[in-house]
Amino acid sequence: MNKSEEIAARFNRFVMPTYSPSLTLARGKGTRVWDADGKVYLDFAAGISVVNVGHCHPRIVEAIQRQCAELMHVSNLYYTDNQAKLAERLSRLGLGGKCFFGNSGAEANEALIKLARLWGHDQGKYEIVTMTNSFHGRTLATAAATGQIKVQKGFEPMPEGFSYAEYNNLESVSMQVGEKTVGVLLEAVQGEGGVVPADDAFFKGVRALCDERGLLMLCDEVQCGMGRTGHWFGYQGYGVQPDACSLAKGLGSGFPIGAIVSNTKLADVFQPGRHASTFGGTPLACAAALATLDVIEEEGLVRRAGEKGAEFRAQLSAFVGKYAHVTEVRGSGLMIGLVLDQPVQGLVERLREMGLLTLATAGNVVRMLPPLNAKDNELDEAVEIIEEALEESQSAGDAAASGGDSVSN
Ligand SMILES: Cc1ncc(COP(=O)(O)O)c(C=O)c1O
After folding, report:
1. What is the mean pLDDT of the chain?
2. pTM score, two decimals?
């Protein structure tokens, strides 16, 4: 038994099988990770859009180490400088109102749902329209908000108050709006749904519909936020502003933190006692997030994600038509989907064997979310590995194409 197998055996014996891991990772630096037996991989999963500035960036490591020795945690019954600074920076980057901090994407979306319900409460409004193939989390309310049956199945009865409209179909959203509707919740680019960007007219149309009908527009920026799409937040690519958005994943570069950011209209809806979190926005979590913002700004990573993403997608687009089953390359910035007309699980496994970590999403999409500071040669190397795998699978008569959906998020 090698080291990886030894760890996997202990893991499988004692950790509940909510995921089905395929690799034992032990170390990371920049875009590369090493398994427990020393094999190196290019990490184009990046913790599913968490490690946006690369693994163990020295600035993040230093900020966490320094803050650890100063003050790790105090209750939110007290003011802390880091939380105030982080809230100010997030507010100024986007919606201009106030922030609430939690620890994960699901918690951030729970807070967003509660905020919308509290805002609409006196008008008797609580229902939120969400999108088919969306993903908002695994708590009961966020699973109910998620427009995918497979996420809800077996956990019924689901909390009520959600209805589902077809993504990129404004008419369908409009049809779901009723007397009790308080808002519309959507991702600017659906991640788990298969890397599907919102159409420009659709996204702008949702804003206009919300304005017309007195609804809140709520954006889940958990996966597509923090520079990933070539904008600080995915919604900024459409030139419209939601009333509030949720953040997590890339915000802390791997240190758990979630947040909601609101406009001024919603800034004071939550009053003492209405919502809370023991660990939300600790000095330590906020130090990691502040350092993340510094790195993204100083390394120009928002712009880089846009430019390198466009180049990377253009390189992959050459495979459409060249390799029989590749039908489309889509995405925004460095949030990229290579779409096949058949399941991609086998291809993703082959890419892993060849040293490239990607994600099998929505059955037929190879999703890639490399660090925003992945080097040019690392992006080129990934393209070469993908081409080699496609070439191999084509000449082997598609033996690599098999399997269904892997568990990601
Ligand atoms: C768009 C989106 N929202 C929410 C979540 C849930 O985040 P977390 O796993 O941190 O609870 C995810 C996770 O994949 C996500 O992609």
Report:
1. 96
2. 0.97
